[in-house]
Amino acid sequence: MSDETEMIEALHPDPTKQGQRVNRAAYEAYRDALLEAIPDTADGIAFGELAAAVEVLVPNRIRTTTSPGWWTTTVKLDLEARGLIERIEGTSRQRVRRTTSP
User: Fold this and answer.
1) Residue 30: inside a domain
2) Residue 99, CA distances (Å) to 17, 39, 56, 87 in order
3) Res. 20: pLDDT tops 90
4) Number of domains the chain contains
C-alpha cells in the first residue's frame, strides 16, 4: 500500500477522546511542517498563528480537500499525545512549544 492511500491513527492527548484515522502522506507532511514551525523556546508559538506558519511549509502536492486548519489541529493534538510538543501553562491564549528534537 502506498503512503498516498495508507491510513494511520492520529492520537488525541485526552484519553477519553478517540483519535482520527488520517492519510499517512498528509499526516507526515503536516507533522514535519509543525515540528519545523513550532520552536523549542520558552514562549513557543501561539496556536492562532500556527495554521498560517504551517500552511506555507506543506508541499502543494499534499493539499487535500480537508482544510489546513483541520490538519494543523489534528496533527498538533497527535504530537501532544506523543510528547513531542506541549501546551505552555499560564498563558491566556494557547501556546505550544517543542519538547524534543524531531
Assistant:
1) yes
2) 23, 9, 23, 10
3) yes
4) 1
pTM, rounded to two decimals: 0.89
Each residue's pLDDT tens digit, 54-99: 989 998 777 677 888 999 999 999 999 999 999 999 888 999 999 9
Contact, 88 vs 44, CB < 8 A? yes
In a domain, 86, yes or no: yes
CA dihedral of 71, 60, 58, 17, whole degrees rounded to 10:
10
Question: Is 87 domain-assigned?
Answer: yes
**CA of residue 57 relative to chain centroid, distance:** 12
Q: Scanning the structure block, which residue is given the C-alpha cell 489534528?
A: 74
Percent of the chain with pLDDT over 90: 75
Residue 60, SS3 per DSSP: helix
Alpha helix (H) ranges present in the chain?
24-37, 47-55, 68-81
Cell of 43: 514562549
